[in-house]
Amino acid sequence: MSQEKITEVGSLADHVGTSVTILGWVESTRSHGKVGFVVVRDGTGLVQGVLLKKELPEDAWALLESLTQECSVSLSGEVREEPRAPGGYEVGVTGLELLGASEEYPIQPKEHGIEFLLDHRHLWLRSSLQRAGLRVRHEVEQAIHDYFYDRDFVRVDTPILTSSIGESAGTLFETDYFGEPAFLAQTGQLYVETACPAFRKVYCFGPTFRAEKSKTRRHLTEFWMLEPEVAFADSDDNMDLQEDLVCYLVQRALERCSHEFEVLERDTSELEAIAPPFARISYTDAVALLRENGSEIEWGRDLGVSDEMLLSEQFDQPVFVHDYPKAVKAFYMKENPDDPRTVRCNDLLVRGYGELIGGSQREDDLDKLLARIREEKLPEDKYSWYLDLRRYGTFTHSGFGLGLERTVAWITGRPHVREMIPFPRLMNRLTP
Ligand code: 4AD
Ligand code: MG
Known about the structure:
Elements: E1 19-32, E2 35-41, E3 46-52, H1 58-66, E4 72-81, E5 89-100, H2 114-119, H3 121-124, H4 128-150, E6 154-155, E7 161-162, E8 174-177, E9 180-184, H5 189-194, H6 196-199, E10 201-209, E11 222-231, H7 235-256, H8 258-263, H9 269-272, E12 279-282, H10 283-292, H11 305-313, E13 319-322, E14 345-350, E15 354-361, H12 366-375, H13 384-391, E16 397-403, H14 404-412
Parallel strand pairs: 3-5, 6-10, 12-13
Antiparallel strand pairs: 1-2, 1-4, 2-3, 4-5, 7-9, 8-9, 10-11, 11-16, 13-14, 14-15, 15-16
Helix pairs in contact: 4-7, 4-14
């Protein structure tokens, strides 16, 4: 741009009493004869510009009156503290310039239907609730990396194009890979497991894909998943790590996202109360508790959404449900030595959202794992590399997957995961 130094709204506190130039987008304008106001968003904050007709060149005043929602502008003038202005500062405008027009901006300050907003997601991102939600997402992502970096985990990036089915055959996106079938990764887990003997404590964090044919507020077809994996950790150690991580993420958001929580009108008392230990109940006990509370679930069936909701309501804190029946869980989970009908796994359930995390100790016995692959009718030849982990120095190990969008929805108190990712992919939506 010009030689003039551009100031970001987020740093106006350091510029009170000096003259600045701000570049941004117009949120609103109003004028009362002799004085006019323009509220500008520059991505770091909001600032109000105050314009006095008699002190401005005529064309600048005319421009103010013609500004429309979301046109881009350059605004210059002196910074003043003004507690009543959005953002707490205002600029006494001496210069105003139009950079880019915006005619008939589709999203108006009124109620729009959700499909309309999703059709305009590329513009909807600019609105305050969406900005707040996505900033919390950004903070949670950074907190995840900081947490694992500080604890000497190595980040291992796993492939998105794969030839082996990661979770189950039911929800695969298949594509053609030079004449061979390939799948979009449902999980990075199998790969990240193999990095344990190289680095001991590892994690992957990236997009994962599931052809979910259900339209629910908890499912996306493309979502981001954090997957740590730890050598010589059993199922109990695995739950310890999940509990510690979840408490850390909540703390981090409370410390750094107070402005966003205000915008989102999030009652943070529920988050402030999150503290270890979280209750740990077996699947068998969970079934009994559910039945006492009116559910008709039978032992052996997976917990449905309504069961997860009902169960999580019984606890003040997130709750671990562990040792599910083998038949309802993925092939790689370790058979429970005390009860071979079950596997050493856990889900972490939270109020209002259900499953936030799914984790398990991994089957480390070659023969048992092979038997499970055959039982599930998975193509054995595609798992030879995965079985090598059990052939060459097998070891106890455990890990879990935390869904980023569900975590951010829970932390922000927003009902639907579709707002927790910049461009949601849903069963009926691939655009924009
Ligand atoms: O329980 P899931 O399927 O576990 C795995 O994929 C394991 N491989 C993880 C591991 O052990 N490394 O998924 C883990 C989490 C769920 O608890 C949920 O939060 C999220 O991923 N998730 C989804 N989020 C949004 N949309 C979907 N369709 C999701 N499916 C799972
Ligand atoms: Mg699960």
